[in-house]
Amino acid sequence: MKTIKWVRAVFALLCLTLVLGVTLGTTKASVQQQGTDFAAIDAYVAEQAAKLGIPGLALGIIQDGQIAHLQGFGLADSAGRPVTPQTPFHIGSVTKSFTALAVMQLVEAGKIDLDAPVQRYLPWFELADKEAAAQMTVRHLLNQTTGISTKDGNRFWSSQQDMEETVRGLGSLSLTHPVGTNYQYSNTNFAIAGLIVEKVSGQSYADYVTEHIFEPLDMRHSYTSRPAARADGLAEGHIYMFGRPFASEGVSPPSGLPVGFLIASAEDMAHYLMAQLNDGQYGDGSILSAQGIAELHTPAALQGESHYAMGWSVGERDGMTAVSHSGDTGRNHAMAGMVPARGLGIILLANATGFEQQSQVDELFAALAFNIIFDTPLADIALPAGLRFQYWGILLTPLLQILGIAFVWRRRQRIKVWGAAVTVILNLAAVYALLQVSLQIITLPSMFRFYPELGYGLAAAALIGIGWSAIFTAQTLLMRSPKYGFSKVDPNLVLSRS
Question: Phi-psi region for residue 110, left (φ > 0), alpha (ψ -120 to 50) or beta?
Fold first, then answer.
């Protein structure tokens, strides 16, 4: 929700393009020809899950377009229930591919035109720029090229408004790029798309997905609500705080269902990937035509070294295309990917995630794909140093501020006026920079929902910085006032009152 620069950075790990482009030294890796060692893979996943502190994982592997392996690892909840391939997990932004599929089904039913304006289906739809709102099409929504920013897409995490209330509330929203010109991953795009599905189909989004996707794909352990999933053994989510996982349910905004809150088991997601790999076919039925599946996977908007398609990230190396997407709800993480030319699909679901740990499942996923395609060794997964530095940097900032205040306060009698001014200005500038960098693509209320310890760390840093600056400035001015008998004091010194 996918994904803050650290959330957006997850997408660099999404693409199996990295898998396809791997080389060892100067020799191109050769594709593995012998059978996959699933016992070794299971041992590796179990070992890494224990090392990384992931309570539970579920794995599904498809080869030659058919399910080749399903396995559960660890615990689904604090009661000690083991994870199985049938355990439901939140799949996060992998949900976006379901929303795109639903739209494409309605396109093939003649009810939606991808290049028609959003206002054809939502006549009341408006933005701050009326002309831009009129130009925005359904295709722009699915390709993430509407001009709605990532940060604006993350505003509704703390809201309890339903889907239509959320979309109707966009009338004052300003775009950060002209419609159709730039890729920006924004959850709001898929909230709008989900609402279009409702208006066009005459069904709720939940009912539509259940009837037209879950049921045809025999996804018996997939749900659109937590209560129903809990009754079937929903995996308990966890958040990492100070490096340790703690059970936590996390957010579930009503308008977020088509964005990132569908629930499915590894086995059911394997059915879903099979249909994606087999031109929309599953068993004796079809959820979409081969042309429709191809349209969903067609690269559209440049996304770093890959492209965004419709609810999928797509890349290419050595003539092979990789299609993938990750998902994160702040308490669960999911990764789904395919190499259509090989008939390969992998789904990996975890019931824990955190600021530092959000990319671990993606890296574990990539290691498995490396091994299956190129027979590369299964290496240990490590915490990313950059995210670790950011995490602890935010948490330690209030402590460093307090130490700095103590240092300056003890020496306030020897600080010159200009030095006091510089101290206050630098302090406020540091607080401003910290907030700007940390809240670049997420709001503080959403930060409290996703990463509460970081939200409190940022709030503490802001309060300490602003509060101390105000007190220090007031005391400096007060002590220099003739009213308190300091008119004869050296004007270049700040003294404390005796």
Answer: left
Pairing mode of beta strands 313-317, 320-328:
antiparallel
What's the 3-state SS for the chain?
Answer: CCCCHHHHHCHHHHCCHHHHCCEECCEECCCCCCCCCHHHHHHHHHHHHHHHCCCEEEEEEEECCEEEEEEEEEECCCCCCECCCCCCEECHHHHHHHHHHHHHHHHHCCCCCCCCEHHHHCCCCCCCCHHHHHHCEHHHHHHCCCCCCHHHHCHHHHCCCCHHHHHHHHHHCCCCCCCCCCCCCCHHHHHHHHHHHHHHHCCCHHHHHHHHHHCCCCCCCCECCHHHHHHCCCCCCEEEECCEEEECCCCCCHHHHHHHCCEECHHHHHHHHHHHHCCCEECCEECCCHHHHHHHCCCCEEECCEEECCCCEEEEECCEEEEEEEEECCCCEEEEEEEHHHCEEEEEEECCECCCCCCHHHHHHHHHHHHHHHCCCCCCCCCCHHHHHHHHHHHHHHHHHHHHHHHHHHCHHHCCHHHHHHHHHHHHHHHHHHHHHHCCCCCHHHHHHHCHHHHHHHHHHHHHHHHHHHHHHHHHHHHCCHHHCCCCCCCCCCCCCC
Tell me if 305 sits within 8 A of 21, measured CB to CB: no
Q: What sign has the CA pseudo-torsion 358, 359, 362, 364?
A: negative
Burial of 490 (0-12, 13-18, 19+ CB in 10 A): exposed
CB contact at 8 A, 59 and 367? no
Distance between CA 473 and CA 171 in Å, rounded? 41
Whole-prediction pTM: 0.85
Residue of 234, 310, 224, 219 whose CA lies nearest to 269: 219
pLDDT digits (tens, 9 = 90+) for 337-385: 999 999 999 999 999 998 888 888 999 999 998 889 888 899 999 877 8
| Burial letters 208-245, b for 16+ CB under 10 A, else e | bbbebbbebbebebbbbeeeebeeebbbbbbbbbeeeb
- The partner residues of 349 in beta bridges, in order of sequence, read 58, 334
The residue behind tokens 């977020």 is 256
Beta-carbon count within 10 A of 246 CB = 14
Distances (CA, A) of 412 to 34, 175, 239, 271, 488: 73, 47, 42, 68, 18
- In this structure, are residues 84 and 372 in contact, taking their beta carbons and an 8 Å threshold? no
pLDDT digits (tens, 9 = 90+) for 108-137: 999 999 999 999 999 999 999 999 999 999
Lowest mean pLDDT among 132-146, 174-188, 460-474: 460-474
